[in-house]
Task: inverse folding
């Protein structure tokens, strides 16, 4: 269990050797979120951990927003054609906290997490 926004959250970690491959969140028998962290587990579209931003998007506007919580240095973008899947991108950026990196900076960022939400 962990806390998120002041609430207790139940989760399971799926391990691959010594590394976390997936995190499954849910409560009362219902899965609410799955985070994929392993590059051997692609999305149904073939997107996987390490896929560059520029392979999926030409710009962040209308597609992406700053990630929140523990991932606030990352950017989260909705997967095209899906209401449940989003991709979290991370990379190098030394700009002010709270601002989105420019599209030019994001083009070099890579998928660091594939997120499914109910």
Result:
């Amino acid at each position: 269990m962990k806390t998120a926004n002041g609430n207790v959250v139940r989760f399971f970690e799926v391990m691959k050797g010594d590394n976390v491959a997936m995190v499954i969140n849910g409560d009362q028998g219902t899965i609410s979120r799955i985070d994929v962290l392993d590059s051997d587990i692609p999305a149904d579209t073939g997107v996987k951990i390490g896929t560059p931003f520029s392979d999926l998007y030409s710009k962040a506007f209308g597609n992406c927003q700053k990630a929140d919580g523990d991932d606030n240095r990352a950017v989260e973008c909705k997967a095209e054609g899906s209401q449940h899947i989003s991709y979290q991108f991370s990379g190098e950026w030394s700009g002010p906290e709270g601002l989105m990196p420019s599209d030019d900076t994001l083009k070099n960022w890579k998928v660091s997490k594939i997120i499914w939400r109910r």
Q: What stands out?
A: The beta strands are 2-4, 7-9, 11-16, 19-27, 30-36, 64-66, 75-78, 85-90, 110-117. The first strand starts at residue 2 and ends at 4. Residues 54 and 107 are 5 Å apart (CA to CA).
